[in-house]
Fold this protein.
Amino acid sequence: MGGIFGLDLYRNEVIWKRTSAHNDASAFGRVADKILFFGSGINRSAVRVPLSEDYVAKTYRHEDSRGRYMSSDLTGPGTSDGESGQEWQGWGPTSKGRHWSVPRTGDYAAWIDENLIPGYVTEPGILKRLNMLNEANMVVFSSKGTPRLKRYLMANPGQLPADIWTDIPPVSSRAKEARKYPTQKPLALLERIIKASSNEGDLVLDPFCGCATTLVAADRLQRKWAGIDLSPLAIKLVDERIAEERGLWGGANALDAPPARTDLGELPNYRTHRHRLYGEQEGVCVGCETHFPFRVMEVDHILPRVKGGTDHPDNLQLLCSGCNRSKGGRAMAEWKAAQ
Ligand SMILES: C[S@@+](CC[C@H](N)C(=O)[O-])C[C@H]1O[C@@H](n2cnc3c(N)ncnc32)[C@H](O)[C@@H]1O
């Protein structure tokens, strides 16, 4: 991930609680998956979640005809000789070592302007804004007579999820979205990830797409998408699921051979590695592990070129001519398995 996106874009390891119990004989039960989040930021407004009941009860402890609210300071530390140091309604901040700090910018000021006091944010006068708030019944006085601002619960758009996600349950076998794919993830999980990190019209790639959860979530959120998987079952399920999702699907592209690599540039002819490999292998054939003179050794592609193998040195080895003939067009792993 660091190699692909750059370590400087690493943001979080998010823990997703995928089940409530898991029996692991010699370890703590593995109930979580880890999501590595790389990116330049989060679409905050797209992924807010409702405040917890507990938080609401503890924080928004007052209520008026508009609903629940908490009260917050209308002053900041330090005195001022200007307007923000003047008395208002018989109360002066200077004697308390403070000055007026009546919000004009920020989300709450914008909400006040939009919902309760049109023109609020364009009013430059501090005491005038205090009057506006007071007339709109948004100022409360503490037991000591200090004016405070009402902050309404209804203005709170919810909170950004923290890095432990326990609010998205796994896919139940009875759920409409269940596809009998062993590692299927819930749509809600992919929806949160996609909303947090992309916009409508963006392209979402899932190179391990399983039964197409990411693709369906991306499609529903008006993103373009592409998915890759090497499992024939996954390809079948992707076909079925996307066709069900919307009838516009032309079918998955099933490739029998891997696409040719285009990222290696010009490589020298593989035979030029013969001397180096002979030295590295100390004259021993990788197949039969027997020492042979140089002239008997042949350069072999571990994964044959017809199966997508390249001339890259990592894909080359020396076999004696006997082993090379026996291996033929097979991959090294296939030939070894057949021995
Ligand atoms: C954890 S599952 C993905 C599940 C998926 N998010 C879903 O909800 O269905 C990982 C997938 O990666 C596929 N896979 C594993 N190695 C792969 C590879 N080298 N290339 C492409 N797909 C691969 C597997 O077949 C499997 O479907």
Notes: The CA atoms of residues 8 and 91 lie 50 Å apart. The chain is about 25% helix and 20% strand. The first strand starts at residue 10 and ends at 17.
